[in-house]
Amino acid sequence: MARYIGKRLIYMFITLALIATFTFFLMKILPGSPIASADKLSPEQRAVVEARYGLDQPLPVQYFDYMFGLLKGDLGISINQFKGANVTDVILSRMGPSAQIGFQGMLLGTVLGILFGMVAALRQNTWVDYGSTIVAIIGISIPSFVFASMLQYWLGLKWDLFPVALWKDGFMSSVLPSIALAMFPLATAARFIRTEMIEVLGSDYITLAKAKGASGSEIAFKHAFRNALIPLITVLGPMAVSILTGSLVVEQIFAIPGIGEQFVKSIMVNDFSIIMGTTIFFSVFLIVVILIVDILYGVIDPRIRLSGGKS
Amino acid sequence: MEKILQVKDLELSFHTFGGEVKAIRGVNFDLYKGETLAIVGESGSGKSVTTKSIMRLLPEATSEFKNGEILFGGRDLTKLSDKEMQKIRGKDISMIFQDPMTSLNPTMPIGRQITEPILKHQKIGKDEAKKVAIDLLRLVGMPKPELRMKQYPHQFSGGQRQRIVIAIALACNPQILIADEPTTALDVTIQAQILELMKDLQKKIDTSIIFITHDLGVVANVADRVAVMYGGKIVEIGTVDEIFYNPQHPYTWGLLSSMPSMDAEDAKLYAIPGTPPDLLDPPKGDAFALRSEYAMKIDMEQPPPFFKVSDTHMAATWLLHPEAPAVEPPEMVIERMKKFPGSRYYEGSAN
User: Fold this and answer.
1) Would the pLDDT of A306 be above 60?
2) CB-nearest partner of B89 from A204, A205, A211
3) In this structure, what DSSP letter does residue A152 have?
């Protein structure tokens, strides 16, 4: 197991290096300059500013400077969005709200999704089943920004239950964005669990469990549930991605001072170091999620317990 | 002998998109204490459905008891509630399934799978149940049972898994053990081991076994009595000697003739022509008539009643009617009948 994780860490490192390289050159190809109102500056003033951020160096030098900084954990300093602030500090200060709504959204989505899926499978072809299928279809097909606006209109404006777009009331402020983020994981989990539960409930070992005298709920929870979870773990990774990309939009809509909101703005103003830093931060997050998913597989399914290659 | 289970006039249908499939069309048999009753027949003859209906393991949404009763311990199993059935399943009646590769839960250690029915049906603690499970594993011939309790099904071979399934079935010393083709999915050497094991265990714990199979070699090995099923009905029932050496129903003749034999002179294997009847629209006479070269006019029109051959032997064929013309069974069957005292071809004791 330790050996497996070690191997994975090396792969993660390589992946990150590739992502950093790719993003770096992509940004350099993009037109525009991070220097605010660059065309109003004289060539001399411009040269001074560029020299301060190392933008006057040849591209390979800039690249290796950046990569070495990255090795040391230095993401550089913000060029214009947060003038001169350390990128790491910027990201860390913005992480709280994003992590909160992301975590709440994911938790709400998967738990409700699993519940919907289970109930639908156990009450197959009844109105409960159809209802949960409809919820799943809606959750997948309605984009989060539409759903977010609907939440704002009904729950925020009309019924005045939650703040519409104000990050001041702690948990109350996080409810609407969390629900908006939860829709996709909810729909995905519900669909996967339903399909898988129906298949598992028809398998031989469920018949055997029944033949042992197990009751309906024992069969569903002790025998079927764990087996039905396996494919859901596969989509946990993509679900984490959806929470991330969803948060880019949702944070904008609900005016949440999170990473997503800041990321979008940094792209608009061409702040290279913030874009790079945030991309790398998101990449690390996703790669770690994928690693956790792979380890979870082994925990849930003994047939794929991880071993360190050939022993 | 004490009757432990009585199946009377059992009729069961499945509701499908195509209509009502009459899977069991009036099945009668008794199971005696300590005996092994084999139910044989080809796929779709209703043998599995019969036993699954005893356990009430058929999907309730699509299956329906149309008639008859299944009497066990003074109660009619067809009328019990789910709760009451749960108390019987795994405790009084338990079952071994066909494919050991799929009948164990892949994500649960086998120890827990064995202790589950023990904890459910007996008032004993977890540690005690574990001891019972280890003893059971030892009983079914699993080496180092203590170490294997924590392992998962994929860490066992097919034969070992079937031993585990048998251990689960025996966990509460059931009065009836239903074995639904327990050796079909195993290779031949393992088959023999499992059959020996089952015979051994039956002596030790004195349970009655219903053994479903389509392998007549297995039947000869394990059974005391045999019921031959065809088209959702039992067509012949008798002791194993009566069925093998004095068969009366043309379908039983066909089955016996299609058994591969070591000393057959020509290597051709006999196969019964035609296909089993469509139970969506079952034939009104003898279900086997269309495939039988011995069929008479009445076979097409009226289902044959059971004719008594001996106290233990009955067959449902019009050929046994006093007014039916005498027919010659296939040669291979005559050869068998020659060895059976009481059959019309008996040639005296050879030994």
Assistant:
1) no
2) A211
3) I
